[in-house]
Each structure stands twice: as structure tokens, then as C-alpha cells.
Design brief:
CATH architecture: Up-down Bundle
Strand content: under 5%
CATH topology: Chitosanase, subunit A, domain 1
Number of strands: 3
Mean pLDDT: 93
Number of helices: 8
Distance between the termini: 19 Å
CATH class: Mainly Alpha
Helix content: 55-70%
Low-confidence stretches: none
Number of domains: 1
Amino acid sequence: MADFSAAFIQTMKAEGGYVNDPQDPGGETYKGIARKMNSKWDGWVFVDTMKKQKDFPRNLDNNADLQVRVKNFYEINFWDKVRGDDIVNQDVAESVFDFAVNAGVVTSSKLAQMTVGVNADGVIGTETLQKINADEPKAFLSLFALNKIARYVAICEKNQQSKKFFYGWVKRTLEGV
């Protein structure tokens, strides 16, 4: 079965640190946790307190309590919801998890379901897991990547401001194949 800690390390490479981009729909973000979508996350108390220090935002990564909260947030809200522990192949689990972080659990689950040809209801259940685990990992990852890129193209066609994120999204997708 796949390992969360390894997947978390890979995803954190893409998520980066503290950002407050006015064009990002999530607004203020720390390690991929967008304040607008996760305003009740207990890590924001640490971030807000540390903003008063002169070495902000560099000081955030050195706060052990904050880092534990980040890791727990990802495990509970993404890894567990895509049933990462039940996916046999580590690369497949990492890809489904990473896309859940990037696009949402339901979106990642639906694309994984489309990839293996089951009803795309956005919840990874027994049938989806069986199909994912039975699929050849390279084939799954290739088709899943194409599905992700098609979604990113659709986002950019709908919202021209999103084009600035397109290259990064595609790069992240291809690094996971």
C-alpha cells in the first residue's frame, strides 16, 4: 500500500511556501492551504502571529507545531479522502493525492474514475479502488495526466487570467508521470 509521508514530501515540493497573490482565487496561501477555502484551519493562528516577526515569511518553515498542522491537514483532508492508503502503487497514489490537493478531492476522484472507466461520482469507493489497483500504473498515470491537462485547458479557456498558472500546472502534471 502507498505511503502518505512519501506522497506528502512530493506534493510539498510543488506547493511551496507562503504566497498572497491577488489573482489567486484562494488568496493568502501557506504550503498550498488557501485561506479563503480553509479559513478555520488552526494553522492560520500561527501564521498570523508570525507575521509580526521581522523574518516573516521565512520563519514559518521553522515552526514545528505549524508543520505538524500542515501535514495533518493534508492527510485528513486529501490523502484519507482519496483513500491513498488503499492504493497499491505509490506513484498512482501520489498522483491522485497531488491532484486532489491542486484541484480538489472530488475533481481528482472523478478524473481517476474516468481514467479507469467507472461512474465518475467523485467518491473513491471499492469499485474504483479495484480498477485503479488492477490497472497498469504507467497506463493509468499517462491517461490521468492527459485528463488533468484537458481540465487545465478548459479552465484557461473559461478564465483568461488563469493562463498565468497553466505552465506550472502542466509542469506539475508531467513531473508526476
